[in-house]
Design a protein that fits this description.
By secondary structure, the protein is mainly beta. It folds into 2 domains: 59 residues, no CATH class; 79 residues, RNA polymerase II/Efflux pump adaptor protein, barrel-sandwich hybrid domain (OB fold (Dihydrolipoamide Acetyltransferase, E2P), Beta Barrel), CATH 2.40.50.100. The strands form 4 sheets. A 4-stranded antiparallel beta sheet has the order 5-12-10-7, with no helix packed on it. The chain has a 4-stranded antiparallel beta sheet with strand order 9-8-6-11, with no helix packed on it. Strand 1 and strand 2 form a beta hairpin. It is rod-shaped.
Length: 156
């Protein structure tokens, strides 16, 4: 049995940990936690000890993180800004996911008419036309994630 003194949010805890017996099959899986599958135990490193004399703790070494691959940005957003005037652009008022597009290019729309359904925080939000006109271009499709200020479509 091992005994540890742990400080969490300024409160000291005394913890006793029992060592569990492992059979041969479980022992084999415990040895390959290093991710290499070579049967060697995972590397261990000691955490830096504090100035207060607390017992040092052993932590498992983690595999290095691989950088995330950059994904293609949705068709809307800043890339569409070059082809649309500020008056014509309908911007996303919040981050979310496009659930439905209620219009298509060339449709006549009126101010206040629902054009897109945007899901944000499990709520469906109707995005209405900001002016009367004709749909020039739609820059998003169903399932796209959009950020606040991304261009959804153009009404001329």
């Amino acid at each position: 049995m091992k005994r540890y003194h742990i400080k969490v949010n300024g409160v000291m805890f005394d913890v006793e940990v029992e060592e569990a017996a492992m059979d041969a099959a479980a022992e084999g899986t415990a040895e390959t936690k290093d991710g290499a599958g070579n049967g060697k135990p995972a590397q261990e490193k000691k955490a830096p000890s504090s100035d207060k004399g607390d017992n040092s703790q052993i932590q498992r070494a983690r595999a290095p993180k691989t950088p995330k691959k950059k994904t293609d940005a949705p068709a809307g957003g800043k890339a569409a800004a070059a082809s649309v005037s500020a008056d014509d652009a309908l911007l996303s008022p919040m981050p979310g996911t496009v659930l439905d597009i209620c219009i298509s290019p060339g449709d006549e729309v009126y101010a206040g008419e629902t054009l897109i359904i945007l899901e944000a925080m499990k709520m469906e939000n109707e995005i209405n036309s900001h002016k009367t006109g004709r749909i020039k271009e739609i820059f998003v499709k169903k399932g796209d994630s959009v950020n606040t200020g991304d261009i959804l479509l153009a009404v001329e």
